Amino acid sequence: MIGTQIQHYKIISELGEGGMGKVFKAFDTKLERFVAIKFLNPNLLKDSLFLERFRNEGKNHAKLSHPNIVMVYGFIEYRDLIGLIIEYVDGITIEKLIEKYKRLNVIYSLKIIRQVLIALEYAHSKGLIHRDIKPSNIIIDNNGVAKLMDFGISKSLDSKIELTRLGRNLGTILYMSPEQINNQPTTVRTDLYSLGITLYEMLNGAPPYYFSNEFKIYEAHLKNVPQKLSSKFPDVPPEIDELILSAMNKSTVVNFNSATEFRKTVEELIFSLPIKINQVSYNASDEKKEEKKINRNILVPIFFTIILLSFASLIYLFVQNYLPRNDEKLEEQTINFNTIKPTTKTEWQKIDIPNASNFIDMIILNDKIYTIDDNQKAYLIDENSEVKILTNSLFDGINKILSYNNLLILLGNNGNILITDKDLNIIKSINVSEKSILSADILNKQVVFCGSDGLVGKFDVESYNYSIMSNVHSTDYLDIKFLNSNKIILVGIDGSVLISENTGKDWSREKLSNNYLKKIAIHPNKSQILISAGGGTIFSSIDGGKSWTQIQLNITSPVNDFYIFDLKNYYAISSSGDLIYSTDGGSSWNVQRTGYFVPLNRISSDGRNLFIIGNNGLLIKKGL
Ligand code: ATP
Ligand code: MG
Prior knowledge:
binds magnesium ion
């Protein structure tokens, strides 16, 4: 499977395997992004209940669009394969964190649970119960953002279809609520119960009812109260025991009826507990003070100091082992969170375009917007937002639009290049390769293009002459730009940046990142080059690409496009609906939510307005 191309998805690696089948990381060559594809196990294709669960997962999940919920992009049906295309999250699941660190830090765990509760508040408000909350369905991305996955056996509150029975066979019984065991109707409390068990496991290293006998597990869910973690671990205060019991509906004091009640208590604890927990570590330093006193009195034997040092190093080791690396990032994110301006959708004006699919690329020419979707349609939108739609099978798979005088050049899959007039009438269609052109740039009448499997080439817009370069190594190239008429820069999925000083005769190659490089932006006065990378990183060079500095943005998904307005004002957009902007020439960046949680694909301006296109036919504008 790995290395194969299924439709426009290139399978890269296996991410894991669950009850329904295998999950793969793949690269979507049309939208130039990584995705996760969950393929239904072929043996289960005959099982109509499983098929139903699988389709249900896609359908229910697709209703949700939230930063703490992994996005579902669609289904893929190819020969005898059925797959679900999901947002790829570069991160680690809670299950794997527990495997790695055994027990997780209390405050870290509470912060994760808080994020999951925010996701649940949203899902519950949409009338959906997850019903399969467990550590393997919560993933923490590289920015410390927790995302809930797998609405596989989720149920609409008003749905009559009960798929709980299926969930039971899938290793979820450790987290299963009493009502699921009793085949009683599930409610929002079902999710709170399973999240309570999940929190228990994060702090304990194992769930509360962990027996080899299935029946015993069921019985414990129904009858037992879990052992108090505070009696087992000195770092767990009794408030946590109470919190877990309230989530599990087993408290004698208060039980939660909603995700909001649970979240509010978690938030109180996040604020109040660190003081208590710090007191524990202050005790250690108090002992050090004691040590000094005793030393002064020359009463302390040397071995006492050694014991104290070992105690200190034990604390150090404890912190090293039990505090996941992501905790630091989470702190960073919490602070940066204040700089996120919660934009309301009203700040952006949405231009409605009927039946548009995902917008791939856009160009603004003579105040008109030209854009293209992934469903054979090109759109011409004038200043009064009048939309002209042209459907043509030749527009299929176009990834890039350039302009030259009053002509448009459209480049795309299977090496197709179209030249159209300014009304999008096709003048010429040329095929330069079997490989897909993913990006291109133009200077004077020279086009350079790049694409899949090492495709790099040149094309003359007037003579239609083209040549393919064979002197680059084979990877998928996601973007290419002219720095001047001789100098070209090229970035690849393998994290390498290539520069040629002689229009592609020779290339120097440098590996900038372990992650993929996606988009290049060149400052109009050529003073700066920016490159976006997976994981929300930007690389910046002010010496023509000789040296690079790395900037980590506080966003969950990569920058898909840049727009450099002037010397100081830079804009960027992400795959999860964020606008990121800098007012100091790229030194510091602010995140501003657009309010649209879909991948944003291009940003441009006519000098007065910013325009952004994205998936699901999104075209929005805002005055500059
Ligand atoms: P179950 O099928 O019972 O829910 P599971 O959650 O362990 O079990 P899957 O949902 O199939 O199984 O996921 C398997 C693994 O694949 C996950 O544990 C996770 O590591 C990885 N994974 C799943 N979805 C994604 C994603 N969108 N991005 C990154 N990794 C993912
Ligand atoms: Mg899962």
